[in-house]
Amino acid sequence: QVTLVESGGGLVQAGESLSVSCLVSGSVFSIRTMVWHRQAPGKQRELVAAVSEGGSASYADSVKGRFTISRNSAKNTVYLRMSSLKPDDTAIYYCGAEVGNRVYWGQGTQVTVSS
After folding, report:
1. Strand bridging mode 10-13 / 2-7
2. What is the rounded CA–CA span in Å between residue 65 and residue 57?
3. What are the CA-CA distances from residue 78 to residues 49, 87, 107 (Å)?
4. Can you tell me the distance from the alpha carbon of 67 to that of 59, in angstroms, rounded to the nearest whole number?
């Protein structure tokens, strides 16, 4: 069992930066890949970024060059640093932990970018 709690969302203006965090607890030793997804109103949930157990990161084209995902295993925390934010980045951001064939999700944190 894995529990994830996101924090750090908020309201920012376009062009500004914001970081969100995800604290993981439980069977953390079993986690391989950590991911951030987001869901905007009226849209499907989409993958934003992923980081492997070894630290290799991948990004959606829409955020490449603006977002950075990282994980601190000692703190059981995954971060998403977002810069040059756009109104289109407005969404609920969810942290996920892949354990075998299952993905555990947090409750999400709202990020709102005003124009």
Report:
1. unpaired
2. 12
3. 11, 24, 15
4. 8
The CA-CA-CA angle for residues 100, 80, 58, to 5°, reads 55
**Token pair 């955020």 in the structure block, residue:** 63
Largest CA distance in the chain: 41
Write out the E strands in the chain: 2-7, 10-13, 18-26, 34-39, 46-51, 57-59, 67-72, 77-82, 91-99, 102-105, 109-114
pLDDT in tens, the chain (115 residues): 899 999 999 999 999 999 999 999 988 888 899 999 999 999 999 999 999 988 999 999 999 999 999 999 899 999 999 999 999 999 999 999 999 899 999 999 999 999 9
